[in-house]
Amino acid sequence: MRYFVNENSIVREIWKKTDVVLLIFAGSAAEFALNKAVDWLYFTGKIPNNPLGRLFSTVGYAQNIVFAENEKALATIDSITAIHQSVELSRGKNIPDWAYRDVLYMLIDYSIRSFELLERKLNMSEKEEVFDVFYRLGTQMQLKNLPNNYTDWQIDRNIHLENDLQNGKFTLHLFEQYKKHLGNFRYFILIEIQYVLVPKNVKNKLSMQSQFPIKIVLNLYKICKKIKIDSIIKSIILPKKHQIEIAKFGSFEK
Q1: What is the pLDDT of residues 167-211, one digit of tens each?
Q2: Do the Cβ atoms of 76 and 65 come closer than 8 Å?
Q3: Using CA atoms, how far apart are residues 8 and 141, in angstroms rounded to an integer?
Q4: In sequence order, what are the residues at sequence separation of 6 or more whose Cβ sits closer than 8 angstroms to the Cβ of residue 128?
Q5: What is the 3-state secondary structure (H, E, C) of the chain?
Q6: Are 136 and 45 in contact (CB under 8 A)?
Q7: Rounded to an integer, what distance in angstroms lies between the CA atom of residue 133 and that of residue 131?
Q8: Can you give the residue ranges of every domain in the chain?
Q9: Which residues, at least 6 apart from 141, have a Cβ–Cβ distance to it below 8 Å?
Q10: Terminal-to-terminal C-alpha distance of the chain
Q11: Considering the entire predicted model, what is its pTM?
């Protein structure tokens, strides 16, 4: 049986871990809010109105690609492409090519950053493997001007970070929506996690400052993982009304 992602791939190791996946989207949530194409999120209204619901939907799509047989994964990617094309048709204009690449680059970057923050450093071969999986995803979506290797991607990622981000009128509103749906305590945790996770220029554009020794907390959490009591912490931090969805995308850990 052929899979889109090899069964022994580091990408599967990354995307099967609930806490790592949550960090991937915590980092992406910060960068999304700064993206110059964020107005596309407001055209449908789905992310601003229900950011957590869209998170779980996106995780579902991603895991259906990472853990699926090749043909099923390709079908999922094609369905994502069709959804975006439908939105473009409704609006009467195309999502910029660079905006598609931005999203793909976020998945690559935060997959690596999140795993390294909670687990261990990845070697160059593993980073190249992460790049390759999402490169093939982007190729299937017919994205243009993708770099061909991890080294070239690093260069282009930095260019995108310099050119495609701004603290605009939608940025504050998106963060207000995050706070509204998470509540004060979980929103505080989100901001602190984002502070240690996102690239420097994302941090600067959001004027982020840490008010809490979150790295110490993360180290304590790693100890809890080793002694198998991290589920208690997750039950406290994660929204109770979304426990079922969280359990679903954590099912690959078993």
Answers
A1: 998 999 999 999 998 999 999 999 999 999 999 999 999 999 988
A2: yes
A3: 24
A4: 149, 150
A5: CCECCCCCCHHHHHHCCHHHHHHHHHHHHHHHHHECCCHHHHHHCHHHHCHHHHHHHHHHHHHHHHCCEHHHHHHHHHHHHHHHHHHHHHHCCCCCHHHHHHHHHHHHHHHHHHHHHHCCCCCHHHHHHHHHHHHHHHHHCCCCCCCCCHHHHHHHHHHHHHHCECCCHHHHHHHHHHHHHHCHHHHHHHHHHHHHHCCHHHHHHCCCCCCCCHHHHHHHHHHHHHCCCHHHHHHHHCCHHHHHHHHHHCHHHC
A6: no
A7: 6
A8: 10-253
A9: 77, 80, 81, 100
A10: 21
A11: 0.93
How many residues are recorded in the chain?
254
Q: Hey, what are 183's tokens?
A: 């509540």
Query: Cα–Cα distance between 251 and 180 in angstroms, integer?
Result: 28
Q: Quote the tokens at residue 11.
A: 């990408």
Read off the pLDDT of residues 60-115 as tens digits, 9 standing for 90 and up: 888 889 999 999 999 999 999 999 999 999 999 999 999 999 999 999 999 999 99
What tokens does 105 get?
């680059």
CA distance 114 to 197: 7
